[in-house]
Amino acid sequence: MIVTLAGHVDHGKTTLVRQLTGVDTDRLAEERRRGLTIDIGFAYLEENDVTLGFVDVPGHHRFIHNMVAGVASMQFALLVIAADDGPMPQSREHLQILQLIGVQAGLIALTKCDRVGPERLAAAKAEIAKLVDGSFLQGAPVVETSSETGVGINALKQMLLDAARGYGAEENDKPFRMAIDRAFTLRGSGLVVTGTVHSGSISNDQEVFLFPGGSRGRVRSLHAQNKAAKSAVVGDRTALNLTGLEGAAISRGQWLSAVPQDGHRCLVLEMTVLEDFPRPVRHWTPVHVYHATTHSTGRLALLEGNRLEPGAKALVEIVADEPLLAKHGDRLVIRDQGLDRTLGGGTLVDNRKTRGRRRDPERLAALSAYAQADPQSCLHALLDIGPVRLGDFAAVWDLSEDQLRILVENANVEQHGGEALTTELWNKWRQTLLVECEARHRDDPALQGLQENEFDRDVPPRFRSDLLNTLVADDRLEQQAGRFRPKQHKVVLAPEEEQLFKRLEPLLDQPQPPSVGDIGKAMGIALPLLQRGIKSLASKKVVVQINDKRVYLPGQVQPLVDIAEALSQQGPFTARQFRDAAEIGRNVAIDILEYFDAKGFTRRNGDHRTVVGTAERALPAD
Predict the structure, then answer these.
(1) How far apart are CA 329 and CA 316, in angstroms?
(2) Looking at the domain 177-257, which fold is it?
């Protein structure tokens, strides 16, 4: 179990660790000269097969950034308060930071008890009870100690050992991530980095990647809780002996991960403003952002309103100046740049770059869904809003392909183009398109069909094609030339189309009708005007447009189809054979056969053709 000591400067944290472990965690010469902890220090105690790791953090407010670097949510807190002083400013701030980071269990050590009388001791305990009221330490044991006389040291040690027996190693199925707090070189071993495992697990010979930069290394050996081990899991204080990264510049604030990682500058938090913060938090406030051992400056963007009152809880967006390797569920601490004090903190909800307007209602609804505690609940909440982009969803929750597939299968949803949506919404949109198509064709009998982009705007365009195709497959709609219409819809000619067809029909009612040019001359109609009219009639299937020069009645095409099928039964046939059998001109025969080829009714191979499709391909459907 890892124990994080917290408390005001000069309240005896380092001395208490030395009494418990025999190790002086003030390793820097400057710390020893000044009698002041500046950086985080580490010590271990092993007794009765139980290992305790102690993280001694600085108590002075000038080194609060180092204090934050030493804390992780899975640690056990030991809040140290001197009996003569009682709770002091950093006592409160450290407790607040422990709470914001998500530490959930701990003890309180009341130090320097030999320096005060019974009345002051009772007063200190009352002050402590008031300090921890409403926090995770409310009701926690307060152990009276003295590093000078040794009073309470063994009792405190035993209570910590007992607590450690209930702390099992935590495992999760996320990719490995470890926040680096130290890096150094050991003679005979090479590069060693230390830190706390934040997700996943790490084993000997496993490949790792440095963030930022992406440099690749390999774990040669590792220690967990100060002992040689084959693997380490979430919460373990870990030392990794690495190869392949010897030339890389490694320092506190960097990360090791199992896969290459990109950082994130836009971070949405479910944030709580501390109740004792002295002023409202305003939009675009400059802040310091602390995530594990990493620090960045940035801005705090409010997603609703222009101010947050002390004690308020809301979704906010942090726009960091440096990318952070923060994932869903990670805890961040936010400090005010101007006041140099902790403003608040919270849990990461989303780490994607903002798309569109920051305060778009649809985006805010999705962010509220991402605030759910687990991916299954989140997915259901998102599906209630609308379609879910599965790639984005998996990226936010750090899910593998198999994990995502199982979640989606259990949700019983429709999937299309990398998105998931409920069956109810899918069927609603299907019905919307069907009803609109039927209504518009009923209101306008001359309508030839609707293209995808002509349908209801309430159905997103990216889904219309799949929806309309399912309606065609179910015989609810029919589709031709990119237009959709009801299955039983009969096209009615417009008056001008009816008039043109009456004049055309006698000229076309023969095995070899005149060319379109000759028809135009005979009817006294300009060729472009006639071609537009013929194209409109062909779209309504009352004529068959062979090409720009030739047009037929459907009844005159049928005999030509029959001739081609009869010839093909005897084997591949030539254009000459088709011409002679149909008793039409050579050029006309070639035009007809090329039309058949284009429709997929016949297939050309050199000078020969074979029927390969059904007659319906060459004839307009009813």
Answers:
(1) 15
(2) Elongation Factor Tu (Ef-tu); domain 3 (2.40.30)
